[in-house]
Amino acid sequence: MNLYGRFFARIYDRLMAQSEEHGLRERRRALLARAEGRVLELGAGTGVNVDHYPAHVRELVLAEPEEPMARRLEEKNPGRRVVRAPAEQLPFEDASFDTVVATLVLCTVADVPRALREARRVLRPGGRLLFLEHVRSGDERLARWQDRLHGVWKQVGHGCNDNRRTLAAIQAAPFTVEQLEHGRIPKAVAIVKPMIVGVAVAS
């Protein structure tokens, strides 16, 4: 088993604590208020979103491919359905969810277009993708730093790609972005501060 993966799973919540306390938690809560029906969360990590889902959600399924993270997820959320599956290969039937959630996960998937195609496949027509992701900066100076530090950050951040054009990937997939906000992750390292939050509809 990957020792760094186990270590990262153990410290992830502490690494994110300052960002969560200074506004990221509220961003999550506001976004997840849009979740409805049967919900699938991609790369659920340690389960930081779980308490933010509204009571009217009918069912919540948490997908997490990494064993250390999945174990932490189960420990913190007993009774929740946890499925060990990558975003690129979801073991669910077509059109079986009303909402798919991706928060700070599309930076780590191996194949973003494939992950988004899978998200669209498991969503019913008209279903929603709720996303909160850090992305490549629109400021070219900062974007150049993201490129320069990409290799180092990917190692430190356990596979995190700080310079992905995630919004373009969502727009290129079979989704219609109906709500979008650009922002900054509070208390984060500069190269991962640029953030997008939004809702896309499966067309």
CATH topology: Rossmann fold
Average of per-residue pLDDT values: 94
**Helical segment count:** 6
Query: Structural class of the helices, strands and pairings?
Result: alpha/beta
CATH architecture annotation name: 3-Layer(aba) Sandwich
Kindly report how far apart the N and C termini lie: 40 Å
Number of strands: 7
Shape: globular
Low-confidence stretches: none
Which CATH first-tier class would you pick? Answer: Alpha Beta
Radius of gyration: 16 Å
In sequence order, what are the helices and strands, one letter per element?
HEEHEEHEHHHEE
Total number of domains: 1
* Main sheet properties: 7 strands, mixed
With strands numbered from the N-terminus, the spatial order across the biggest sheet is 3-2-1-4-5-7-6
The CATH superfamily name is Vaccinia Virus protein VP39
Fold and architecture overview:
- Helix 1 packs across helix 2 (67-76).
- It is globular, with a radius of gyration of 16 Å.
- The chain contains 6 helices and 7 strands, in the order H-E-E-H-E-E-H-E-H-H-H-E-E.
- Helix 3 (112-122) links the parallel strand 4 (97-103) and strand 5 (123-134).
- The mean pLDDT is 94.
- It is of the alpha/beta class and 203 residues long.
- 36% of the residues lie in helices and 25% in strands.
